[in-house]
User: Fold this.
Amino acid sequence: MKLNPMDLPEKVLYIINELRSAGYRADVVGGAVRDHLLGRSAPDYDITTSATPGEVKAVFFDKRIVDTGIKHGTVTLVLDHEPYEITTWRLDGDYLDHRHPDGVRFTASLEEDLARRDFTVNAICYNPYDGFTDLFGGMDDLDNKVIRAIGDPTRRFTEDALRIMRAIRFSATLGFTLEKATLDAAISQRHTLDNVSRERIFTELNKLFSGSYSYDVVAGCPEIIKTAVPELLHIDLPERRLYDAATPELRILSLFALSTTAPAEAFDAAYLSLKSDKASRERGRAILDALSEPRPSDEYSALRLLSSFGVDVAQASVELGMILGRREEGDLLRIKEAVYSGKPYKISMLSVGGIDLIKKGIKGKAIGETLSHLLDLVMQGRLSNDAASLLSYLDA
Assistant:
């Protein structure tokens, strides 16, 4: 692997230099280093240091520091409104809940700090003075595209069950394979996912399904996916070419469509459990409901689908159907043509409204029913959408 020095942001370099000037070592660690070595941009920078939180505060006495994770040795230094997490080298206590250590103690050993981390590719650190420090073969694993737990993988996953989801997420986003012992341990310890908050599971799943290699992960780790989403009774996947070309949303929905007997209900229950945002849950359910409607095989059925579900959901349902082999390119074309034609598919697009009907003596619930009937006749092509024709029909 060619080791080009990291071009650190000015403020990150400032933090490292200030701590170094005070007699402490500081490094960028984790995802930022991994992504640099992979030629990817880093969204943020975590800093690890030999300085204790109190010593960090003393170095930056004139700056704003927030005790974001002080009991775990983490403080956040705010520079020009930008937060930078700085964590002291530490050893974790026992993980009694499969998620969080019951305490930490600081260590003077960088190796001990790196040894407690999850995967070798996340345990590489860097500073401009000492260069890259890789004590667990992370660079070799980057070269070989492997996700490998540090030390005993069963222990790593028993300590923190979220690491199971992180492992398969990294595999899905980076295209790395899980080293066999790491994969075996992730599968055997998948029951501990019950200890992870559903919100965190949801976050990891969204990242996983956004990955270019999520098909491989879902096909290769169905036990973990089913544990994370028990509403998926089994795992069936559509044709890979179609899956890979789909949006993350449609990838997820394709699993529910193929792997459950009542897709819309199963999806709704799963997303409630995962504490998804309401909009995503309602949209996903609507797409699956629309998929159960008749194919938009002609203009009328296309307009009916648009009338029931709106443009976005109707189009997404057809695209999902195409992934599943239940819809055709022509169905999608008919939906688009129906929209562009300007023909009405909702009551608000009619040339008459409630006030017109009231003037004709129509009242109460009959107003909505009459407008719906008129809309259906216009969509069928039996009436033209002009006020004279519609009102004349009512007079007949």
User: Anything to note?
Assistant: The domain at 145-228 is CATH 1.10.110.30 (Hydrophobic Seed Protein). The first helix runs from residue 10 to 21.
